[in-house]
Every structure is written in structure tokens, then in C-alpha cells.
Design a protein that fits this description.
Length: 329
């Protein structure tokens, strides 16, 4: 809703503006009610009615006897959109597979718990406090998981085959945090009070959401590297391992520059990343021209390494954008 209102002068120098009647009624305000005024980074002013929105955002998901992965995607979509209560309805009953998918979904996200489960429907409710985990804290936790996954995938290249299953299993925790950050951002756009709880502007929400997505992609590539790392590590030659370690160091420096809001170091990371990608591409092209054992595993490993570097430089670019925005406030 966008309306134009003229400022009116009262008393000697006080300026006042009337508020839309529909908005007043919706928020149950009256003369004497207190509202909060919050100056936004772009210079605009936000008017908060100062009352919590207790209305639940109820979403209904109908089961149509489709593949379980389709139901899972539908539930994730509702979760990311900020649904606080999800009612899953069977057709006419919930099948065993559908019930398993609902439980899998509940275990895969933060906050939503199954509170009712009957023959024909299941209800999930958000039991979390939306502002309890800030963007900054969540992104730090996500980075710790992703960094450990990637470092273990390097150990697999060196011969620690037994770590592969554990790396892949930890990807679920990375997904959980990335989904949570994206959900928080989407909810923040609809609820100004949540923005205050998270102590972040919508622009900061965009930055954190993007960085979370980059980290989640790196986690995916750590899984790819872990799954074929042992075989790829058997390929003769000593250049792949140093390239993989370089990628890990670039990711670490990219995240340090982001956490510390250091655009200068972020620029250094981007320059180093470009050089490392070029070096990796040259090695890949020259090595692939020759006969080798396990060419598929070699291709997957090198692609995972180069993409890890690319997403790390994306994080550094986000750091530069964020720093520039803060300087212009």
C-alpha cells in the first residue's frame, strides 16, 4: 500500500501527518496508542504499530499420491516462504510414504514440529523464536560446517576414504541452516518487527541470504569431491592436492573478509581466486589431453575445486557490496 499524505503544521513549528484509516483499524490503534518510528538506511521512515502479529501464516499442502520428493519440495517451498503452520492433507488418507516424507521434512528444517498427525492430515507448527538466531550467528555456524566438510574432502584426496559418508551426511546440516537464513530473510520482508529483532536491514538480509547460498553450493561440491576423492587421489601427479588446498584457503580468507567487513582483503581474495582458477583450468586442460586412469573422477574433482574458488570470490564480491552500502549511509 502506497499513499501520499501532506504534512500539516500544528502549534508553532510541529509538523504532523495523518495515518490511513484502514491501517489504523487493521492494527487496532486509537488516539493515545503508541507507534514506533524507525529510520531506515535509505533515509525513509518505518512506522511500526508496536503490536506483535499473532496471526499465523497457515498454508495447506494437498497430497496427490506423487513422488515423495515432490511433496518434500512443496513443503520446503512453504517453509522458505515463511509459513508458520503447515497442514498436509491426504487424498483421502496419508500414505506411509507421505508420513515418512513429512517426518523427514520436519527433521530437515529448523523450528517446524509435527503437533498433530491423524489418518487424513498432519499439522506442523513453527516452535522457534524468529529473532533468536541472527543472520551473523547463523552464517558463522554455516561456514564452520562447510569449512569442515571441505577440509575433510581434502583428507579423502589424501587417502582417508572412511570420511566420505560423514561429509555427505553433514550436508543435511548445511542445507538446514541455509534454508533457515533464506526463510528469515523472506519473513523479514513481510514483517518490519522481525527486521528489528534481527538487527538487520533488508539489504543486509539480501547479502546474508546470498552468502548462505554460496556456502551451501560449496558444501555440495565438497560432497562431490568426497564421493570420488579417494579414487581421484590415486591419479598420478602432484598438482591436484595443492589446488584443492588453495581453494580451501581462498574460501577461508573470503569468509574472514566478510565477517570482518574488510573490502580490501576481499579484493585481494578475488585477485587470488582468478589466478587460481586460471591455474586450475590450465592444469585440467593439459592433463586431460593425456591418457589417464579415472578420467571421470578427475573431471569431477577439478570441477569441484574450481567452483569452490568461484563461489568464494562471489562471497568476497558480496563483502565489497556490503561495505560500500554501509559507507554510503
Amino acid at each position: 500500500m502506497t499513499e501520499s499524505r501532506k504534512l500539516q503544521q500544528t502549534g508553532g513549528s510541529t509538523l504532523i501527518v495523518s495515518l490511513p484509516k484502514k491501517w489504523i483499524n487493521k492494527n487496532k490503534l486509537k488516539a493515545g496508542s503508541e507507534v514506533r518510528l524507525t529510520k531506515q538506511p535509505d533515509g525513509t521512515m518505518n512506522i511500526d504499530p508496536g503490536v506483535s502479529d499473532t496471526d499465523k501464516k497457515i498454508s495447506i499442502v494437498n497430497c496427490n499420491d506423487e513422488e515423495s520428493q515432490h511433496l518434500f519440495r512443496d513443503l520446503i517451498g512453504v517453509y522458505l516462504a515463511g509459513g508458520t503452520e503447515i497442514k498436509v492433507i491426504g487424498n483421502p488418507r496419508l500414505t506411509v510414504k507421505e508420513r515418512k516424507t513429512i517426518r523427514k521434512f520436519s527433521a530437515s528444517v529448523i523450528g517446524l514440529e509435527i503437533i498433530e498427525e491423524e489418518a487424513t492430515e498432519a499439522i506442523l507448527t513453527d516452535m522457534s523464536n524468529p529473532g533468536a538466531l541472527s543472520f551473523r550467528t547463523a552464517i558463522k555456524r554455516l561456514y564452520k560446517i562447510v569449512s569442515a566438510m571441505y577440509n575433510d574432502s581434502i583428507l579423502i584426496l589424501e587417502g582417508a576414504e572412511d570420511l566420505a559418508a560423514d561429509v555427505v551426511d553433514r550436508d543435511k546440516e548445511a542445507d538446514k541452516l541455509q534454508w533457515f537464513i533464506e526463510r528469515q530473510f523472506n519473513m523479514m520482508l513481510e514483517n518490519a518487527s522481525l527486521s528489528r529483532q534481527l538487527e538487520a536491514s533488508s539489504f543486509e538480509g539480501v547479502i546474508y541470504s546470498n552468502v548462505a547460498r554460496y556456502l551451501e553450493r560449496i558444501a555440495d561440491h565438497a560432497c562431490r569431491l568426497a564421493e570420488i576423492g579417494y579414487i581421484a587421489g590415486l591419479i598420478p601427479g602432484r598438482k591436484m592436492l595443492p589446488l584443492a588446498k588453495d581453494a580451501g584457503e581462498i574460501m577461508e580468507k573470503a569468509m574472514k573478509s566478510f565477517i570482518n567487513n574488510d573490502p580490501r582483503k576481499a579484493t585481494v581474495v578475488i585477485d587470488k581466486g582468478k589466478k587460481s582458477v586460471k591455474k586450475a583450468q590450465t592444469y585440467f586442460e593439459n592433463r586431460y589431453k593425456k591418457e589417464m586412469e579415472h578420467p571421470l573422477e578427475f573431471s569431477i574433482a577439478m570441477d569441484a575445486i574450481m567452483r569452490t574458488i568461484a563461489y568464494s570470490t562471489d562471497i568476497s564480491e558480496a563483502t565489497i557490496n556490503y561495505a560500500a552500502k554501509k559507507e554510503n549511509r
